[in-house]
Write a structure and sequence with these properties.
The chain has 425 residues and is an alpha/beta fold. The chain has two domains: 329 residues, Thiamin diphosphate (ThDP)-binding fold, Pyr/PP domains (Rossmann fold), CATH 3.40.50; 38 residues, no CATH class. Helices cover 45% and strands 8% of the residues. The chain is built from 14 helices and nine strands. The strands form two sheets. It has a seven-stranded parallel sheet with strand order 1-8-9-5-4-2-3, with helices on both faces. Strand 4, helix 7 and strand 5 form a beta-alpha-beta unit. Helix 2 packs across helix 3. The longest helix is centred in the first third of the chain and has 26 residues. It is globular and about 85 Å long. Bound molecules: thiamine diphosphate and magnesium ion. Thiamine diphosphate binds next to strand 6. The site of thiamine diphosphate (TPP) has 15 residues, from strand 6.
C-alpha cells in the first residue's frame, strides 16, 4: 500500500469513529455519558441502602441428613471418588487431632487445625485439575491431602527437620510443593492474593487450559492486598478462582465485626466479578460450585469469586483460646450435626456405600501411621544451621554472607552452648 493510500485509510477510519460518536451522542442525549459508570438519571436524591440489596444466596446440594435436595444437582460421582473424598477428610481430621496434641506436649512449636472446613478443601480440590496452580493462606491442608502430599511431608515440615522442603525456615503448617503445584504458604495475610492474580495473568498469556485457585479467609479479605487482587483480576481478565473460606472468625474477631456488607460474596459484583456463595460444609455444593467456576474462568478468561460459608470449630491456632470469645454450645452445634464429615457420612449411609468397620479400620491405620511418622520425624536431624541463609536469594547478598561468617565464628567459640549434635553437619 502506498503511503498516501495508507494515510487516507487512517483518516477515513478516524472520521468514521468521530461521526459514530456524534450520532451516538444524539441518539442517547437523555442517557448519562460519563465514562466511569453505566447507569440512568434520577431527579430525586436517594441514598441507596445496603438493606435494599438482596443478599447473595447460599447454594447447597445436600441437607444435614445427607439427602440430595434436587436430583439435578447430584454430581453423580463414582463410589471410589466419594470414598476418597470421605477418607481424605477423615485423614485430615485425624492428623490434625494428633498434631494439635503434639504441640500441646511441646513436640512442635505451633499448629493450626482445619476442623469444620474439610469439605471446602476436599470439595474444591476435587473439582480442580492437578495442573491448576494453588495459592493458599494456611488453613487449606486438605487441598494438599487431595493432591497426594504425604503424611511424612506434613510432619517433616511441622518438625522443620532435614526432610522439610523449606529446611526449617518457616513455622509449622507453612507447606509448599512444586510437584503438586502448591505455592509455599506465606504468613503475612493476603500477600498470596495479588501474586495469584499475577500468576493467572501469566497463565492466560500461555493459553494452556490451566487456572489459578487462590484461597483466603474472610479476615484476610480486609487487607488492602485483597482489593488489589480483586480489581486486577477483574480489569485484567485473569483466569483465577478467588476462593474465600468464610469460617466466621479472624482469630477473635467475629465476621460481624469484620465487615458490614453482604459478606465477601457481596463485593464480587461491585468489582465486576462473577460470584457464587456456597455452603462450605456441603462437599457436593463446593464441588459443583468450583467445577462451574473453573469452566467459566477458562472459557471466558475472567475471575470467579467463591465464598464458602463454614465455621471454624477449632481455636484459631495453638496460640489461641477461643473459649474467651464464644460459647462452647455454639461450637458444639457445628461439631455435630453440621459437621461436613458427618454430612457426607449420612449421604453415604443413605446410598448404602458406607461400611462402618472398614472406615474404623481406615481411621486406626491413619492414627498409627501419623504416630509412627511423628516418632520418625522427631528423631531426624535438623538442617545444617547454615541452610537458614541459603535458598532465600538466588545469589546470597553480601549482608547475609557477613552474617553467616559472624555466626560461624560465634559457634566456633561457643560450641558447648549449642545442641549441635541435633543439626546436620
Ligand atoms: C498482615 C497480617 N496481619 C495480621 C496477621 C496476624 N493474623 C494471622 S491469622 C489472622 C486472622 C486471619 O483470619 P482469616 O483470614 O479469616 O483466616 P482464618 O484464620 O479464619 O482461617 C491474623 C489477624 C498476619 N499474619 N498478617
Ligand atoms: Mg476466618
Amino acid at each position: 500500500m502506498s503511503l498516501m493510500r495508507f494515510t487516507n485509510t487512517l483518516l477515513a477510519k478516524a472520521s468514521y469513529h468521530r461521526i459514530g460518536r456524534f450520532f451516538s451522542t444524539i441518539k442517547t442525549n437523555h442517557e448519562p455519558q460519563f465514562p466511569g459508570a453505566t447507569s440512568h438519571y434520577i431527579e430525586t436524591p436517594k441514598l441507596t441502602m445496603p438493606t435494599e440489596m438482596t443478599p447473595i444466596p447460599i447454594y447447597r446440594v445436600i441437607d444435614s441428613a445427607g439427602a440430595i435436595l434436587d436430583s439435578s444437582q447430584d454430581p453423580n460421582l463414582s463410589k471410589e471418588i466419594i470414598q476418597k473424598m470421605f477418607r481424605d477428610m477423615v485423614l485430615l481430621n485425624t492428623m490434625d487431632k494428633i498434631l494439635y496434641e503434639s504441640q500441646r506436649q511441646g513436640r512442635i512449636s505451633f499448629y493450626m487445625t482445619n476442623y469444620g472446613e474439610e469439605a471446602s478443601h476436599i470439595g474444591s480440590a476435587a473439582a480442580l485439575e492437578q495442573r491448576d496452580l494453588i495459592y493458599g493462606q494456611y488453613r487449606e491442608a486438605g487441598v494438599l491431602v487431595w493432591r497426594g502430599f504425604k503424611i511424612s511431608q506434613f510432619i517433616d515440615q511441622c518438625y522443620g527437620n532435614v526432610d522439610d522442603a523449606g529446611r526449617g525456615k518457616q513455622m509449622p503448617v507453612h507447606y509448599g510443593s512444586k510437584e503438586l503445584n502448591f505455592v509455599t504458604i506465606s504468613s503475612p495475610l493476603a500477600t498470596q492474593m495479588p501474586q495469584a492474580v499475577g500468576a493467572a495473568y501469566a497463565i492466560k498469556r500461555k493459553n494452556n487450559d490451566t487456572c489459578v485457585a487462590c484461597y483466603f479467609g474472610e479476615g484476610a479479605a480486609s487487607e488492602g492486598d485483597a482489593h488489589a487482587a480483586f480489581n486486577f483480576a477483574a480489569t485484567l481478565d485473569c483466569p483465577v478462582i478467588l476462593f474465600c473460606r468464610n469460617n466466621g472468625f479472624a482469630i477473635s474477631t467475629p465476621s460481624c465485626e469484620q465487615y458490614k456488607g453482604d459478606g465477601i460474596a457481596g463485593r464480587g459484583p461491585a468489582y465486576g466479578i462473577a460470584t457464587i456463595r456456597v455452603d462450605g460444609t456441603d462437599i457436593f455444593a463446593v464441588y459443583n460450585a468450583t467445577k462451574l467456576a473453573r469452566e467459566y474462568v477458562l472459557k471466558n478468561n475472567k475471575p470467579v469469586l467463591i465464598e464458602a460459608m463454614s465455621y471454624r470449630i477449632s481455636h484459631h491456632s495453638t496460640s489461641d483460646d477461643s473459649s474467651a470469645y464464644r460459647s462452647a454450645d455454639e461450637v458444639e452445634i457445628w461439631n455435630s450435626e453440621r459437621h461436613p464429615i458427618s454430612r457426607l457420612k449420612n449421604y453415604m449411609i443413605s446410598k448404602g456405600i458406607f461400611n462402618e468397620s472398614e472406615e474404623n479400620t481406615f481411621v486406626n491405620n491413619v492414627r498409627k501411621k501419623v504416630l509412627k511418622q511423628i516418632s520418625e520425624s522427631e528423631k531426624k536431624l535438623k538442617p545444617n544451621w547454615k541452610e537458614m541463609f541459603e535458598d532465600v536469594y538466588h545469589d546470597m547478598p553480601n549482608h547475609l554472607k557477613e552474617q553467616m561468617k559472624e555466626l560461624e565464628e560465634h559457634i566456633a567459640t561457643h560450641r558447648d552452648a549449642y545442641p549441635l549434635k541435633n543439626f546436620k553437619n
